[in-house]
Structures are given as structure tokens and as C-alpha cells.
Amino acid sequence: MIIAGHIIVAEAERDRYVAAHRDLVKRARAFRGCIDLAITADPIDPGRVNNTEIWQSVEDLEAWRAVADAPDHGIRMQDAAVQRYNASDGGPLF
Q1: Global pTM value
Q2: pLDDT given for residue 90 in this prediction
Q3: Residue-range domains of the chain with CATH
């Protein structure tokens, strides 16, 4: 299961938004079934935050969402384009 996309916030709030999710990213990476998770500042668009998550299963993702406890940072999302994708296999690229 792959979650990928981006969120748009005010340029002045982007780095604070990313920093506010540091603990959530750390906890998610340690959670059962999380292969990888990243919430990062986009290197080109100063208001864009990239979100990528890879989970072993839908069940693992749903279990995480039930306990994730996202931060209450008060930063308004101006737009969001984050979607879930099913992946049937994977392996090393290099």
C-alpha cells in the first residue's frame, strides 16, 4: 500500500508544518507494517509538503491511522492532493 502526494500550506508555515510531524514520522516508522514514511519540504515549491508512505498492508495502514494521533499544529492546509495506491509487488531498484 502506497500513500503519496503533497499538501500546500502558507510558505511561512511550511518548515513548521514539517517539524510538527517529526514525532509522528518517527513513531510511524517504528509501527508494525510501516516500510517507510516521510513528510518533507519540497525543494522547489516553498509552500509544498511532500507525503510518502509505504505500508505492508491495508490492515497495517488502518491500524496506524487508528492510533497515529496527528499533531494539532494549527496550520491550515490550503490544498491537498494525497492518494492511496495499491501495489502488488516491489523490490530493489538499484
Answers
A1: 0.91
A2: 81
A3: 2-85 (3.30.70.100)
Longest dimension (CA), the chain: 40
Residue type, 61: L
Given a cut of 70, the residues of the chain with pLDDT beneath it are none
Smallest CA-to-CA distance from 24 within 15, 37, 12 is with 37
Tell me if residue 81 falls in helix, strand or coil: strand
Instruction: Extract the runs of DSSP E, i.e. beta strands, from the chain.
Output: 2-8, 34-41, 48-55, 79-85
As a whole number of angstroms, the distance between CA 82 and CA 38 comes to: 13
C-alpha–C-alpha distance, residues 56 and 61, integer Å:
8
Q: What is the pLDDT of residues 66-93, one digit of tens each?
A: 999 999 999 999 999 999 999 878 888 8
Residue 33 has which C-alpha cell?
507494517
Read off the DSSP letter of residue 68. Answer: -
